Amino acid sequence: MTRTVGVEEEYLLVDPDTGHPRAVSHVALAADPAAESTIGLTGELQREQVESATRPCTTLAEVDRELRRARSVAARAAAAAGSRLAALGTSPLAVEPTLSSSERYREMGRRFGLTVSEELTCGCHVHVAVDSDEEGVGALDRIRPWLASLLALTANSPFWQGADSGYASYRTQVWQRWPSAGPYAPFGSPAVYHDTVQAMIDTETLLDRGMIYFDARLSVQHPTLEVRVGDVCLDVDDAVLLAALVRALVETAAQAWRTGAPADPVRLELLRLAAWRAARSGVDDTLLDPCTWRPAPAADVLGRLVTHVTPALEDAGDLDEVRERLTAVLRRGTGARAQRGAADPQEAVALAVRRTSGDAG
């Protein structure tokens, strides 16, 4: 049976004239109370952003429809608050974020200081159904080498505070300020996974399990493995590609776990370097090849990823579509290249609003 997959996207709320982020999520959410139940539209850490969640989907066509519906509902809520919706990993224009009002977020602000004060980033999280914690941890251990490649595919945050950061995904650099974020070591069993999470909580550094910000984790709320490494994608097409590859990676890893195939013992230090390379250049330069841990052209590494998961893609009926979508993103580039192609950061925001609205329509 094909695993279900769902996608969460975070978006910026921006001024329709200036492009600057606006702290109006509370107004947007109040404008359409039904949106929370129909697409899971919620607030986030900062009032300049909202998050949507699709329903669990079986086919890529369903994922595509759900994402477009989610963006459409979120765009209407944004418009009701006098703003526009933009699928951007970071704001191209300077911003001083406004912390949301929940007590949990206020405590995060007290505990983490400037990390919270400056944290305004938007990611894409893909949930894939797993049958048990045993299967989930077996898959977590075996997808580690490929997570940086997924980051490269989604890179959509080249600007920070009005300047080009030099990175395709500067969101990744900002996000990894959190003490629990980024690549993780193999766990080997659910007991070790849960003991590790509890030990992290017991340090009294993190507030709760929701602050386990590994690049992939067992979901706190759902029977899923949640891959959290990506920027929010500028285009729905790229988010669908991400969902297809994540599902195939999880299925491939779960099958390897069932047969007793060992996880790649690659060290955490190399995974951090792979993530840095992916964040630096996206698909526009070299990545670290998980087959050799040496630099290779991004197109070659992503081609090897597709080869690695081809049986799972074939079983789901996704192989041809994944190849087409990957060819397209390699040809036109990710959201980072599109933003840099704009005349200036303000035009990059306007472009993102048009592309986000175009996807919604």
TrEMBL record:
MF GO annotations: glutamate-cysteine ligase activity
Transmembrane segments: none
Entry keyword Nucleotide-binding: yes
Reaction it catalyzes: L-cysteine + L-glutamate + ATP = gamma-L-glutamyl-L-cysteine + ADP + phosphate + H(+)
Top EC group: ligase
Keywords: ATP-binding, Ligase, Nucleotide-binding
One protein family per Pfam: GCS2
Keyword Hydrolase carried by entry: no
InterPro entries: GCL_type2/YbdK_subfam, GCS2, Gln_synth/guanido_kin_cat_dom, YbdK
Enzyme Commission (EC) number: 6.3.2.2
Role description: ATP-dependent carboxylate-amine ligase which exhibits weak glutamate--cysteine ligase activity.
HAMAP family reported in the protein's UniProt record: Glu_cys_ligase_2 (MF_01609)
Similarity-based family: Belongs to the glutamate--cysteine ligase type 2 family. YbdK subfamily.
Protein name from the UniProt record: Putative glutamate--cysteine ligase 2
Source organism (scientific name): Pseudonocardia charpentierae
